[in-house]
Design goal:
binds NADP nicotinamide-adenine-dinucleotide phosphate; single chain; six-stranded parallel sheet; 43% helix
Length: 284
């Protein structure tokens, strides 16, 4: 049976470290690091996600704030809010919660967040730093996965890694981080032919598709490490990942559950990025 990679456990350790760093930062600067989230409208999932982010910040002592704009806010109003927060020295980390209401250009609004404060690391400049391997504000979900692998002593050096999914938020940055750690990386997607033959090569398999039971036991090499990024609902409306957890657990050496695997790490790495942004600002 595969060992469980416990995202809550790894998160608790990292949040403990950040709490100490935040206290030391406050002793030097007379203020704690701050994260501000701009939420437009009342999308129920976004309300929950933002609340979780605020809680994670509270846990480590950060000053967190949610700026709520009405559903019918104009693009100019959102952009002006972002610009004001860009210029506020107490705001170390800033993000606009996605998805945005229809009619707002998410690309334009994300691009308005000041690079360096962009703790989601969605800005093209942050994507560039990732490519050049010279930044410390990294996309949250992939960097959370790297932190989990490291915690469990799973070395990626020289390993065959397959990432299913090529989104800008998960798949592509995941591949970049694995490559930076000297893995041999294959990225699969909806046009990949004979997906099982590709995934069976993987020592480490990361699935970021968004469809339940995408990864079945016959697609996994015995002893592989399986990381499930997917967040889906099964036929009973229960939260599940992309991986057939019960069957794949019988083949893999390590596996992340859903919930309790990658999810908690994503929020923790947002907190990590905010801490890094605050530390970077000290050096300016
Ligand atoms: P996305 O933008 O929809 O990308 C999905 C990717 O999967 C695409 O690259 C797509 O290929 C590929 N794909 C779709 N069907 C496929 C198939 N049958 N075989 C192989 N590849 C296939 O999604 P995302 O934003 O990356 O998110 C992926 C999942 O992770 C979702 O369930 C999301 O909710 C979850 N997620 C979880 C966290 C977390 O913290 N746990 C964070 C972010 C996302 P094409 O490019 O060819 O279309």
């Amino acid at each position: 049976m595969a060992a469980i990679i416990d995202g809550k456990l790894v998160s608790a350790k990292i949040r403990g470290e950040i709490k100490e760093e935040a206290a030391a930062f406050a002793a030097r600067n007379g203020r704690f690091p701050g994260l501000t989230v701009v939420r437009v409208g009342e999308d129920p999932a976004s309300v929950v996600y933002v609340r979780n982010k605020m809680r994670a910040c509270d846990e480590v002592g950060f000053v967190s704030e949610t700026v709520v704009l009405p559903e019918n806010a104009s693009e100019e109003e959102v952009l002006n809010t972002v610009r004001k927060l860009n210029d506020d020295p107490k705001v170390d980390g800033l993000l606009v919660q996605l998805p945005l209401p229809r009619g707002l250009d998410a690309k334009k609004i994300v691009a308005a967040v000041k690079p360096g404060k962009d703790v989601d690391a969605f800005h093209s400049l942050d994507a560039g730093h990732l490519r050049l391997e010279d930044g410390n504000i990294l996309p949250c979900t992939p960097s959370g996965i790297m932190a989990m692998l490291s915690y469990y002593g799973i070395d990626v050096f020289g390993k065959e890694c397959v990432v299913i999914g090529r989104s800008d938020i998960v798949g592509k940055p995941m591949a970049a981080l694995l490559l930076a750690a000297d893995a041999t990386v294959t990225v699969a997607h909806s046009k990949t032919q004979d997906l099982p033959s590709v995934t069976r090569r993987a020592d480490i398999l990361v699935s970021a598709v968004g469809r339940a039971k995408t990864v079945t036991a016959d697609m996994v090499k015995p002893g592989a490490v399986v990381i499930d990024v997917g967040m889906n609902r099964d036929e009973n409306g229960k939260l599940c990942g992309d991986v057939d957890f019960a069957a794949v657990s019988g083949v893999a050496s390590f596996i992340t559950p859903v919930p309790g695997g990658v999810g908690p790490m994503t929020v923790t790495m947002l907190v990590r990025n905010t801490m890094n942004a605050a530390l970077n600002s000290e050096k300016e």
